[in-house]
């Protein structure tokens, strides 16, 4: 910390205590050159992680909002809450690993859909119907047919390997 009196860069901390109900730390310092004392405050610099919506708007990432969407898709389904936490953790990790501190919601939706597809097909279709914004029943049916086809292909592969 640079001394405000002489500009020297080395000091020693004489006293530390919590300030403003734990939101920052107050430190009394003493310059090692001029021996004058000064106070510094340390606080966590919270720059929020952002998501870029389909329309280009940016908003802070909200873990609870992701969980609410997944819970809605998994309503009345036999999906363990630990698995849902795992999906939300994966999404949060993806957002936090961004060097720009922002990620598009399209990629977040893809992660959730991929994980739900492995976990519970009904929850996957529910989530996809909202996320992919199906305009009519034919789009919905097309996605269901793809799901059935991929399931049949997976079953055929499993039977061949058995």
Would you mind describing this structure in some detail?
The protein has helices at residues 63-73, 81-96, 105-119, 121-131, 137-161, and strands at residues 11-19, 24-31, 37-43, 50-52, 58-60, 102-104. The strands form 2 sheets. Strands 1-2-3 form a 3-stranded antiparallel sheet, with no helix packed on it. The protein has a 3-stranded mixed sheet with strand order 5-4-6. It has 2 domains: 11-43; 50-131, no CATH class. Helix content is 48%, strand content 20%. Mean pLDDT is 85; it is low at 156-162. The protein is built from 5 helices and 6 strands; from the N terminus they run E-E-E-E-E-H-H-E-H-H-H.
For this entry, give a set of tags:
5 helices; three-stranded antiparallel sheet; 2 domains; disordered C terminus; 48% helix; 162 residues; single chain; alpha+beta; 6 strands; three-stranded mixed sheet
CA radius of gyration = 26 Å
Summing up helix and strand content along with how strands pair, one would put the structural category as alpha+beta
Helical content band? 40-55%
For the report, how would you describe the main beta sheet? 3 strands, antiparallel
Distance between the termini: 68 Å
What's the number of structural domains? 2
Strand content range: 15-25%
Task: Identify the overall geometry.
Answer: elongated
Spell out the helices and strands N to C. EEEEEHHEHHH
- The number of helices is 5
Strand order of the largest sheet: 1-2-3
Number of strands: 6
Unreliable residue stretches: 156-162
Q: Report the average pLDDT across residues.
A: 85
